[in-house]
Design goal:
The protein has a seven-stranded mixed β-sheet with strand order 1-3-4-2-5-6-7, sandwiched between helices. It is globular and about 45 Å long. Helix content is 32%, strand content 22%. The protein is built from five helices and seven strands. The longest helix has 17 residues. By secondary structure, the protein is an alpha/beta fold.
């Protein structure tokens, strides 16, 4: 994989759209259910161990966190969603904020949806996928923690998701393991296509 994403550095963290950077350039979002391995995926793709904070407490990321690649390109860590211990009112506010972000953020160039290979396509995953589809956002689904199950089970999960998304032209899916660096080149190549506008 190229080092396109190694220069990533923390830019800012904000609880709502009001604090976001100016709506210009290109952003690729990382979204996923809490504890699906989102922060680990960001650290793996940027070849940095501590860029995105990996918490032992799922649901800790409750802000939009922006990482700058250069003056035109950003990676965005969206709040983790769907974790049972997060108050219902907070979950609902996340949904409102995220819906607004998808609807109003013009600089969105692509999305990486992070799903645990052992539990893909939860209702929250589907909600996020629907938002991406509704705005024609190119999307890469990564099935994380693929090292934690046998190859046959991982392949079955991959085929299940492939069947579920086969009618969506801008959505692709792959296996991914931050621990084993599996799928890193494939994810990097897809990110390259998301940012192709500014190459």
């Amino acid at each position: 994989m190229s080092n396109n994403y190694h220069p990533a550095k923390f830019l800012l963290s904000c609880p709502s759209l009001k604090g976001c950077p100016p709506d210009q350039g290109y952003e690729v979002i990382f979204a996923g259910r809490s504890n699906a391995g989102k922060s680990s995926a960001i650290n793996t793709i940027t070849l940095q161990k501590k860029l995105a904070k990996v918490s032992r407490t799922p649901g800790r990321t409750q802000h939009l966190v922006f990482f700058e690649l250069d003056e035109d390109r950003r990676l965005v860590d969206l709040p983790g969603y769907g974790y049972a211990k997060v108050p219902e009112a907070v979950k609902k506010q996340w949904q409102i904020d995220m819906g607004e972000y998808f609807a109003k953020r013009n600089c969105l160039a692509g999305a990486v949806l992070v799903m645990d290979v052992r539990r893909p396509l939860t209702p929250f995953d589907q909600m996020m996928l629907d938002w991406c589809i509704n705005v024609n956002l190119p999307t890469q689904i990564i099935l994380t923690k693929s090292d934690k199950i046998k190859k046959g089970a991982a392949s079955n999960a991959l085929m299940k998701v492939k069947r579920a998304i086969e009618s969506y032209p801008y959505v692709q899916v792959q296996l991914f393991s931050s621990l084993k660096k599996q799928g890193l080149d494939l994810l990097g190549a897809r990110l390259d296509t998301f940012f192709a506008y500014v190459d």
